[in-house]
Amino acid sequence: MGSKLSGTQIAKLDTLGEARRKFHRVRKLIEQAAVTPKAAGDLMRQCQRTSSEVGRLLTNAGFGALAGYASDLAALIKRTSTVQSNLRPIREMVAQTYAGFDRAERAIEQES
Questions:
Q1: In terms of C-beta distances under 8 Å and separation of at least 24 residues, what long-range contacts does 68-75 make, across chains too?
Q2: What's the sign of the alpha-carbon dihedral 81, 82, 85, 89?
Q3: For an engineered disulfide with 40, which of 3, 32, 56, 83 has Cβ 3.0 to 4.6 Å away?
Q4: How many angstroms separate the first and last alpha carbons of the chain?
Q5: What is the pLDDT of residue 1?
Q6: Whether the predicted model's global pTM rises above the 0.70 cut
Q7: Exposed/middle/buried for 70, CB within 10 Å: 0-12, 13-18, 19+?
């Protein structure tokens, strides 16, 4: 990265940072739900709500594909009957979203 980032690039990186922090909460809630089956319903509702919020945030910032990952995760969580039965696909979707964050950050940094 040889040159400075523009104002729009900094704004995009800030948005990605905020979305990543919120998504970290999603991952934490999923892991808590996996460990505590009694509270899994409440935890997964919080997870679904936060994931939808991340999707809206990313859509408004122009990260359509990345927003799709978060929205797909929210939809998967919503239709999941039990956490234990769909824990693996949920975790894979979370990993895919984190990889998307990394790709988006690298793309912004390479624009300069």
A1: 69/93, 69/96, 69/97, 69/100, 70/19, 70/23, 70/97, 73/26, 73/97, 74/48, 74/49
A2: positive
A3: 83
A4: 7
A5: 47
A6: yes
A7: buried
Q: Which DSSP category does 61 fall into?
A: T
Q: How far apart (Å, rounded) are the C-alpha atoms in residues 21 and 14?
A: 11
Low-confidence stretches of the chain (pLDDT < 50) are: 1
Please tell me the total number of residues recorded for the chain in this structure: 112
The pLDDT tens digits of the residues spanning 74-98 come to 999 888 777 777 888 999 999 999 9
Distances (CA, A) of 103 to 34, 65, 85: 28, 11, 30
Residue 102, both tokens = 């990394």
